[in-house]
Amino acid sequence: MAGYYWYQNDPQLYQAEVMAMQKFFPQFKIAQLQDGSGRLYWRGKVQPVPGGTVWDVMLIYRNDHPKAQGYGGSVQILPVSPRLKDIAKQTMPLLEQTYGSYDACVKRGFGLGLPHIYREGFGREDEYFICTADPKYFKAGQTSTSAATALSWACKWMLLCEMWINGEISDDVALEGNY
CA triplet 33, 35, 39: central angle to 5 degrees? Predict the structure, then answer.
C-alpha cells in the first residue's frame, strides 16, 4: 500500500536526498513542519561569502516533490535569518531612488526589492523565497538531488545578493542572474 507523502512512496529518493545533503551540507538537519502538512524540511546555516552574512535557511519540500513545477521547483528556499522581507524593505527605497518609482523597479525586475525572489503564503503570513533555478535544472538521485541542488543555487544567489547590496556588482548583473 502506497503512502500519502512522497517520502513514503519513494523511500529510495528519500535516502538519496538524505545522503546528498549529508555529503554536501552536513550542518543541515531534516525535520517535519509542525503545521499538519506532513512536509519535510532541512534547516541549517551557510556563509557563502567568507566573513559575510551567516544565513539560517530552511529548504522546504513541496508535497509534489520531486516534480519541479513553479518557481524554485519542488524545494522552496526560505531564509529565516536574514529575512528577505527585511532585506527587500531596505533595498526598495534605494532602487526607487535610482529608477524613479516602484513601477519602474517592477519593469526592471525588482518588484520586491531584490532580484530572483518570489512571495508566497507560509503559515499565517506571506514570506519571500529565493527563486533558485528553472525546474529543468533539478536532478533527483545520482550525485545531486533536488535539495542539494536547490541549496547550491541558493548559495550562489546569496553570494551575488551580498555583492549587489555592497555595490560590488551592478543591477544588470544581479538581474540577469548569470550564475
Answer: 40
